[in-house]
Amino acid sequence: MFDAIKSRAHRFLGQEDGDATVEGLLLIPVVATLFAAGWVWHDFGRQTALEQRINYTVGDMMSRETDPIDDAYIDHTFELVLAMLKSNLDKTDLRISVVRQTKKIDRQDPEYRVVWSETRGDRAVLSGTLTDWDDRLPLMARNDQVIVVETWTDHQPVFTIAGLGASEITSYSFTRPRFAPQVLFDDGGGGSHANNGWGNGDQDAPGNSLCNNNAENYDEGQNSNKCRDNVDGSENIEPSGV
Predict the structure, then answer these.
(1) Is the dihedral of CA 198, 199, 200, 204 positive or negative?
(2) Residue 186 domain-assigned?
């Protein structure tokens, strides 16, 4: 019995005749499916990489700002993101936040607080103290800041295949300000974060200035409700990392 099965299998494997039409009809759907799957996965990877590069571009661009940014700046940045993604308002969201670390990390666990946050799209702004963000933000000196850029884009593949249908592509990055200790936001009301008087020698800077900044200057001209007292140096950024 076993020998008969083995003999027939050997003869079957040795046959070279066939029908090209039948074999083509059998193989074309398989090849087309594999091609479509490869195309969809490649396009998804390309779009993901593109969105992350755009995210890095926005973070790098903002990290070089030394003047306060405003709503118009955020609007134009969002328009730039949409243009580079070839997307539209209904499919893409953007959130830009500045986060400050407030604790001495050699004695306490880091604490990250939102300085300001702006969104374009349907996402909510960040506010207050960020919890469960320790794995998303770097270790920072007390009062040091980073710019956090987040994007979300709805992705609809050309073909729907098993394992990859309509999905949301997200990107995230953080960047430290390059030429100033902080990037401020001007809300147009002359209130908090209206101008940068943080140790820059500007004696008349309103907004988020330090009243008594023993880090560099003494901003004696500030109104008490528009600046933060720094007589004890508690608002200084600690370059030592502790």
Answers:
(1) positive
(2) no
> Per the domain annotation, does 81 fall within a domain?
yes
Alpha carbons 132 and 143: distance in angstroms, whole number: 19
**Summary mean pLDDT of the chain:** 81
- State pTM to two decimals: 0.70
Average pLDDT estimate for 145-166: 87
Query: 159 falls in which pLDDT band (50, 70, 90)?
Result: confident
Show the tokens assigned to 2. Answer: 């076993």
Out of 38-42, 127-131, 147-151, give the one with best mean pLDDT: 147-151
Residues 71, 188 contacting (CB under 8 angstroms): yes
Q: Which helix (H) or strand (E) holds 149?
A: strand 145-155
The reply to whether 196 falls in a domain is no
Domain that holds residue 135: 25-175
Asked whether the beta carbons of 192 and 207 are under 8 A apart, the reply is: yes
Which whole number is the average pLDDT over 35-50? 90
> Strands 167-175 and 112-120, how do they pair?
unpaired
In a domain, 91, yes or no: yes
| Residues ≥6 apart with Cβ < 8 Å to 101 | 110, 111, 112, 113, 137, 140, 141, 142, 143, 144, 145
Q: Which of 100, 76, 71 is nearest to 182 (CA)?
A: 100
When divided into structural domains, the chain yields a total of: 1
Sign for the CA dihedral angle at 182, 187, 188, 189 comes to negative
